Amino acid sequence: MGIGKEIEETVEIIKRVLDSWKYNTIMIVSSLIIFAFLYYLLVAKVADKDIWISVIMSGPFFITFSIVSSVVLAGLSGILLAMTWFKFSEYNGLEGGGLFGFIGAGISAFGVGCPTCGAFLFGLVGMPLALLYLPFKGLELQFLGIAVLFISIWLTGKSIKGVCEITR
């Protein structure tokens, strides 16, 4: 089966899961919470809760890309959470738990904000200056997190499709 067909099937499964108000609400609420957390990491810790200070410190491209990728990461994480919740509440015996995607969201959180913000997170694991050595100062971690979330959503969709017929 071609990659286009796989993507099409995954999108159809996502649409069917999110047709339910319950899972749609889970997706929206969790996306907003995750975005708020990522925005907090981007602005509040270093720029004293002012986005314009962040722009001055890190540059408009960096901050714009960080905000856009935060929206994408939050949306994908919300979709993954809704799909995982669907799997466990509707079909209790399915394999896989979506952990792979949540690891991706965690990885990408290390790349949100400026290298100083990342120093705080990387400092928790003993590598406070790690972002300074990356060529794009952490933006590559956001790409990696997005890719891992896409893969996890695809795998979760495959596991749902392979076991059950989604009912509305």
Question: Rg, please?
Answer: 17 Å
Strand content: under 5%
Largest sheet: none
Termini separation comes to: 27 Å
Low-confidence stretches: 111-116
The averaged pLDDT comes out at 74
Which class do the helix and strand fractions yield? mainly alpha
- Helical stretch count? 7
**Tally of strands:** 0
Number of domains: 1
Please tell me what the overall shape is: elongated
Helix content: over 70%
Order of helices and strands: HHHHHHH
Task: Explain this structure.
- The chain is an all-alpha fold.
- The protein has one domain (3-163).
- The chain is built from 7 helices and no strands.
- The chain has helices spanning 3-18, 21-44, 51-58, 60-90, 99-109, 115-124, 139-163.
- It is elongated and about 50 Å long.
- The protein starts with a helix and ends in a 5-residue tail after the last helix.
